[in-house]
Amino acid sequence: MTVFEDVTKEDIERLLKKGYSIETPKTIHEDFRLRKGTVSLVYYTSGKLLLQGKDADDVAEELKSLGFKEVKKITFRKESGWFIGSDETLKGDTFGGLVVAAVKADETIREQLKEAGAADSKTLRDAEILPLAEKIRRIAPCEVISLLPEEYNRFSGVTEILNKLHADSRKDLGPGKHVVDKYPGCSVGDIIEEKADSKYVEVAAASILARAAGLKQLQYLSQEAGFEIPKGSTHVKEALQMLKEKKLEPRRFVKLHFRNVQEFLCD
Q1: CATH number of residue 200's parent domain
Q2: Please, what is the angle between helix 126-139 and helix 201-225, to 10°?
Q3: What is the rounded average pLDDT for all residues in the chain?
Q4: CA-CA 20 to 30 A from 237: which of 64, 110, 165, 222?
Q5: Is the pTM of this model over 0.85?
């Protein structure tokens, strides 16, 4: 799959004038969907344009000649046999619990994941994550475990939870070499590597599934709280104050062991 970034709607108009045909978008995250021969071009609200199809390289060369900016292609490690990659999200967020996802692939599925656009989820915007997660679920055997804050707070420490969920996420996926994106205290996996999500396509795909589930969990908690739950841990003081004003139980929404939460609860 080839990706171009910083594409504008004016650029899309230029392509239409050059004979590209327009098609109906397939997801709410798409602004436009174009076609040229066997190649599908999907334009997202983020300004990225994804090319998919047998002759994508030829169309990409044409776009580059028109001044379109191609995103540097990701080169994953070449492996043989079955691999299972797992990754987590929400670990550093004040609000929310924890999500761990695992994806299993062989050579055929790995190529399909690459073609679908699997990449380290940190390089993707929220609008790109959900449709990509849907594609990955259709392509590869996978497992997602989403732990809400109330369940998370029953454990004694984050390392204990991470080791358990990474191990559990791969249990029902059958045999395969387990690759884990390294975290402090990691004691599971056949291969434990830092930045594994940029080296193994299975881990990259798992990072996308995890982040999609994390976004859905924060949306659910926002509905439960009656206000938008913030991501991260930097700008959360106002949201913590709203929990107090609404007399909502913190254990249902935040990680109680976080220092900023403990300081707030002690005020």
Answers
A1: 3.30.420.10
A2: 120
A3: 92
A4: 165
A5: no
